Amino acid sequence: MPQETEILTEPAATGTPNSIILITILVGLVLLGLFLIFQKSYSSTPAHLLTNTSIKKNHIPTFLIIGPSNSGKTTLFHYLSKKSSVLEANANGKDSDSDNEANNDKKVNNYLPADGTVTSTTFNINNQFKLPLSSSFKKNHILIDIPGNIQISNNLVPTFLKNYLNIKGIIYLIDSNASDESLISQSNFLFNLLLKTESYSPNGIDILIGLNKSEIFGSKPIFKVKNLLINQFDLLKRNYFQNRSSTIKNIDTDQMNQPNSNSIDNDNSGDNDNDFQFANSSTSFSFDQLEGNVDFFTGSLYKNDIDRWENWLDERAVN
Ligand SMILES: *[C@@H]1O[C@H](CO)[C@@H](O)[C@H](O)[C@H]1NC(C)=O
Ligand SMILES: *[C@@H]1O[C@H](CO)[C@@H](O)[C@H](O)[C@H]1NC(C)=O
Ligand SMILES: *[C@@H]1O[C@H](CO)[C@@H](O)[C@H](O)[C@H]1NC(C)=O
Ligand SMILES: *[C@@H]1O[C@H](CO)[C@@H](O)[C@H](O)[C@H]1NC(C)=O
Ligand SMILES: *[C@@H]1O[C@H](CO)[C@@H](O)[C@H](O)[C@H]1NC(C)=O
Known about the structure:
The protein is α/β, with parallel strands linked by helices.
């Protein structure tokens, strides 16, 4: 508390220490109040405090935001959280000035955190994430922002997949200005993520690959990022399945043990063909082989160009 240190360094000669203490306490209470109000809607939990008991199994529809550090995940988390809560308040008629609000809704800046560069080493969770954004008939969702640090991610992602049994989608953010080398190293992480999401449920999990910084001159267009990932996934898939039996049932079941993983073949036969090709080490990788849909969209909070991402969330929220 900075207030306390001020008291200590304040010379006693300046007079009324009692009133200084009183003011300090008042300021402290106001800050605490603001903090509690903030905590109520979304909170940060240090990753090291995360235990098996603090994450309980639940079926609340959930979205995860994943990606490397500096891809803008936490900014996106705060933006979506704030927008969803403002729109919900408006939908509940807490603001009569609807014309102004309708215009404000379109301005990205209104929802951005004051400090534009938020980084986080903890995961952020919003338990009051109201979707769809574009409809007044909203339903509660959970939005979780997982830190980019690869080790934290590797620990947290499986924990969330095991306990959040109704994950509607994952936003994976990519810096489209990243080098080929950086994208290649990310592709390992992303491939492992796909192995997990594909065994999560019969339908897998839908993934939005969001390309950030697409407005920068020299950034990679979608098709380049996509082709690079397809080539990498192809290599990784061949290695991964070479020594495994070619049914998807075996994917990662040692780690996942999802209740649904045994029913994965109860789908229609068309999907089974896809499973089969994904797990066949001599077939080239394609995104069609996955149960979950993978969409690539550029987006930029700076350019007020985030509609495609919001629509993607809304579509999954109503399904
Ligand atoms: C949860 O418990 C399992 C074993 O029951 C353990 O392997 C895992 O590391 C634990 N996860 C966390 C986040 O503590
Ligand atoms: C984009 O990438 C180039 C080359 O790596 C780098 O010099 C530049 O700083 C990057 N720009 C941004 C905004 O990240
Ligand atoms: C596949 O398994 C066999 C026998 O377990 C082993 O000898 C071989 O090295 C493995 N190949 C690869 C590519 O892992
Ligand atoms: C895997 O794919 C190859 C080439 O498409 C095909 O010849 C082979 O029969 C497939 N293997 C299985 C087990 O289906
Ligand atoms: C893109 O990344 C920058 C940080 O590098 C971040 O400030 C910005 O919010 C991100 N954009 C989106 C759409 O998340």
